[in-house]
Amino acid sequence: MTPVSLRWQGDASGHLEILDQTLLPGRLEWIACRDVPTLIEAIKSLRVRGAPAIGIAGGYGLVVAAGEAVAAGMPPAHARAHVLARAEQLATARPTAVNLRWAVERCLRPVAQLPDTSSAVTLAAALFAEAREVHDEDRRLCAAIGRHGATVLPEGGVLTHCNTGGLATGGAGTALAVITTAWDDGRRFEVFADETRPLFQGSRLTAWELVQRGIPVTVLCDSAAAHLLKTGRVAACIVGADRITANGDTANKIGTYGLAILAAAHGVPFYVAAPSSTFDLSLATGDEIPIEERAAAEVTRPLGVIAAPEAALAFNPAFDVTPARLIRGIVTEHGVIEPVTPERIRDILGR
Ligand code: MRU
Q: Do 123 and 180 fall into the same domain?
């Protein structure tokens, strides 16, 4: 069964619940987000994470913001200003995944159509309808990505990086949906998951998801990938994305770029899987993508263990950018972009 990372409780006056991914695979605990600061803390500390999932969380966060306005008895103008201020806080909670701002802006669009005199309750209803649609749509997109991706996945082992499954999306996932769809089709192959330092999304989350589904998984240190590829046991690498620019350059979890170079060096095809909401065609190349830098302690104190002297500094970018030339194809809900060129991207996304 695909795990669920977030769920809405009740109607437009309800609240968002988030599965705290920082506790997995040890503990399953849900956090109730009844106010926006609680949700923003959850996004910043990766309790909810993965590009599509934080987009969905951002959409629901606006409903929570409207709920704050209702609870405070704000008049219409004040309520609208409050929602817009919260929208900016949510959209900027993490900078690299474009899905977050995309979802927040999309959910605000119906509100812009409402008269200025609309009450906070009316704003909440409009925001709820759109946030739910973003969530439902993501389920459908994940299923389509899984289908399209399974057709291009060659026979043989697959290596993935970070977590791109149900925990990272509103549905079956992106890259992981490709793997599970091929598996559900009856194909059998070895699945390898990079542990994905420093936060171990591969070993803690991807391996957990695969084990839940009964799919055997082999976890490896990120630094073992070159040796694994040399053995010939991996026929393809497939990863997700946080932002893809107009030329196909792809930001994804730190270590993805290195893996793509290794795949090229060993003649192994490297695929990216992502919904169209992950594309940012306003940026020409990956050089323009903002890269999130995170706390040194994630590197020096992984999982709370002292792994470096107190005085050591740490370099901790959360993402890197893989140039389009290293990517064999990008699997989207509309089909596979292959070769990865600006023209082909526009062509497929325009469908
Ligand atoms: O920092 P994270 O865990 O949010 O990073 C997640 C990734 O890099 C995923 O690979 C990406 O968001 C794709 S999720 C379908």
A: no
